[in-house]
Amino acid sequence: MGNDPRYSKSRTFDPYPFPSYVVGDGDQALQQKLADLGERLDAFRKERLAKHDFLTMTGMYNVLERVRELEWAGRGAPLSPLAGEMPDRAEGGIGAEGEGPPSVASRHLPREGGERSVAIPPLTDSERDIYDAGLIAVLKEIHDEIDRAVFQAYGWDDLGERLVGRPGATMPSAHKSEDQEAAEEELLTRLVALNLERQAEERRGLVRWLRPDYQIEKLGHKVATGQEQIEADIAIAAAAAEKPKWPKETFEQIRIVKDVLAKAAAPASPAEVAATFDGRNTPKRKERVDEVLKLLAETGGARMMDGEARYFVAR
Question: pTM to 2 decimals?
Answer without folding.
Answer: 0.60
